[in-house]
Amino acid sequence: MTFRLVLVVACALVDPDGRVLIAQRPEGKALAGLWEFPGGKVEPGERPEQTLIRELAEELGVAVEEPCLAPLTFASHAYDDFHLLMPLYVCRRWEGTVTGREGQAFRWVRPDRLRDFPMPPADEPLIAHLVDLL
Ligand code: C5P
């Protein structure tokens, strides 16, 4: 059996009121309907920060500068067919207004309410770190 490792990078955008952005995975994607911290797969040759800058622009239409991305923790989760490693960054400064550019729903949520939103199993352990931080 081959072991498949997938590297995804995610970001908690935090607004001035301390609320965190989560986005809903759209129909047609794996885990559709679940809420996640925005991000995406790290492409070969990319640094995780570059991936986030690219994904946040593509998915949400916001511009982030690399020094504004602070690493917080990472998720490590064994799915049936691959193992996911997912660093989580926090970002409090960006340019532009968040827009669901791929038609995805998004919400700004207080950290203590994040558990009200069903998330992929890899994302759930990240919530406690955000609650501690914020
Ligand atoms: O977003 P994308 O579909 O490219 O991510 C690849 C896989 O990583 C998903 O199928 C999902 O299983 C997992 N994932 C996750 N939590 C996220 C993003 C992705 O568990 N926030």
UniProtKB/TrEMBL annotation:
GO biological process: DNA repair; DNA replication
Reaction catalysed by this enzyme: 8-oxo-dGTP + H2O = 8-oxo-dGMP + diphosphate + H(+); 8-oxo-GTP + H2O = 8-oxo-GMP + diphosphate + H(+)
Keyword annotations from UniProtKB, A to Z: DNA damage, DNA repair, DNA replication, Hydrolase, Magnesium, Metal-binding, Mutator protein
Keyword Secreted: no
Keyword check for Metal-binding: yes
Cofactor(s) listed in the protein's UniProt record: Mg(2+)
Protein family membership: Belongs to the Nudix hydrolase family.
Protein name as it appears in the record: 8-oxo-dGTP diphosphatase
Organism: Chenggangzhangella methanolivorans
